Amino acid sequence: MPLPGEDSHMEMAPMERLLELKRLAHMAQSAKKAGVLMLFYPSELNQTHFVLILRKTYKGVHSAQVGFPGGKFEEVDTTFQDTALRETQEEVGVPSHTISVIRELTELFIPPSNYIVKPYLGLTAVNPTFIPQESEVEDIIEVPLTEFMDDGILIKKNLSTSYAKSIDVPAFKLQEHIVWGATAMMLNEVRQLFKKSL
């Protein structure tokens, strides 16, 4: 199926300036690169879940936020898919060789950290034993697909961000965590894909 693309991102975007900033970043070739993975797997009860992580509190724009396993492109990586798989193994302990990457999703520019992120959709056939990376991961968040597809998870949240104070942003409420910004934008593309296929 064709990807919903940037339109799906913008539905969950805190600010409409993101597309223009992405164009500027591409023109300047100044943005750093990263790869992330939305990993689906069967739970112990054989129900489909995917994994998110709660990042540690640190001095940075994504401190204590919910995100996908993933990170910065390194010299050891041949492709951004390699980055997403390597970081997933490092951050949540799922071996790369057990993951099948289904497809690349629409890349996204994240202005506060100046990253262009390439997201991937993947799955593993077994229920993983998650091992959170102690230095970076505060908690593992396991989200049932049934919860993800429920329209009741769509909310508005008043937040203070790195670029604005007290603004209402679109968000998802998943497993009692508020998921907003770039992660919500990427999640929305996958959610729209799944809605179209049902």
Structural notes for this entry:
The chain has helices spanning 6-11, 18-28, 80-92, 145-148, 181-197, and strands spanning 32-42, 48-55, 66-67, 70-72, 99-104, 108-110, 115-124, 137-144, 154-159, 167-174, 177-180. It has one domain (6-197): Nucleoside Triphosphate Pyrophosphohydrolase (Alpha-Beta Complex). The strands form two sheets. Strands 1, 2, 3, 4, 5, 6, 7 and 8 form an eight-stranded mixed sheet that branches. A three-stranded antiparallel sheet has the order 9-10-11. By secondary structure, it is an alpha+beta fold.
Task: Write a concise synopsis of the structure shown.
With 198 residues, this protein is α+β, with helices and mostly antiparallel strands. It has helices at residues 6-11, 18-28, 80-92, 145-148, 181-197, and strands spanning 32-42, 48-55, 66-67, 70-72, 99-104, 108-110, 115-124, 137-144, 154-159, 167-174, 177-180.
